Amino acid sequence: MIPIRGTSPARPPTSPGQPPRPALQTLAARSARRRRLAPRVVVIALLGGLALAGWRWVAGERINARIEARLAAGAGPASRPDDAAPDLAPEAAFADGIAEARAGRTLEAIAAWRRAGQAPDAALAADAWFNTANLHLRQARVLRQSGGELDRTGALAELAKDAYRRALALKPDHWPARYNLQRALQWFPDADDDSAALPPAPARERAVTTMRAFSLGLP
């Protein structure tokens, strides 16, 4: 149940001997624990609505803390990952990308995520390339619908598809990247055969790519 803001959900009466339902405080505590355990933010683009819909948490608390610090301080020259410890530099770059994207600085966000895309941690690098691809694809869609230059639209779409493929090369079971690449190929087909343009999915999970439930907000 998702309570409406400003109201408390009604509770059905309990019968004698029936244990009381959990208090709202207990539910709130559980929700807080889930938030503490939630992982790294990844930008999920609602491409059908031409907007970034929100942030998907997909990694550990250390990156969460760094992202929160970047968002609180704002990204810019003073918070570049060059000053971070070498083993934390990719995480700092990833966090900078989140802060820059939140501030609407797309080029800076992409530059930060491209740095994070060189991380030795394949999962972190794949998420960085996924975020990069989402921004490029969103730009291409907006530009095409506004009647922008075809060459620039095509170039942005190619950058998006390349970034999705980089994410999948690092993490073949990155299903959001696989799904978004499928959509990108529908909207901006490759010159050659599209069926060969999508990296093969791991055999045991291949059916997931056809499941409507895994649409992530895409049409």
Q: Could you explain how this protein is built, in words?
A:
The protein has about 220 residues and is mainly α. The protein has a domain at about 40-190: Alpha Horseshoe (Serine Threonine Protein Phosphatase 5, Tetratricopeptide repeat). Helices cover about 50% and strands about 5% of the residues. A two-stranded antiparallel ribbon has the order 1-2. Helix 2 packs across helix 3, helix 4 (about 105-115) runs antiparallel to helix 5 and helix 5 runs antiparallel to helix 6. It starts with about 25 loop residues before the first helix and ends in a 32-residue tail after the last helix. Mean pLDDT is about 70; it is low at about 1-15, about 20-25, about 35-60, about 75-85 and about 205-219.
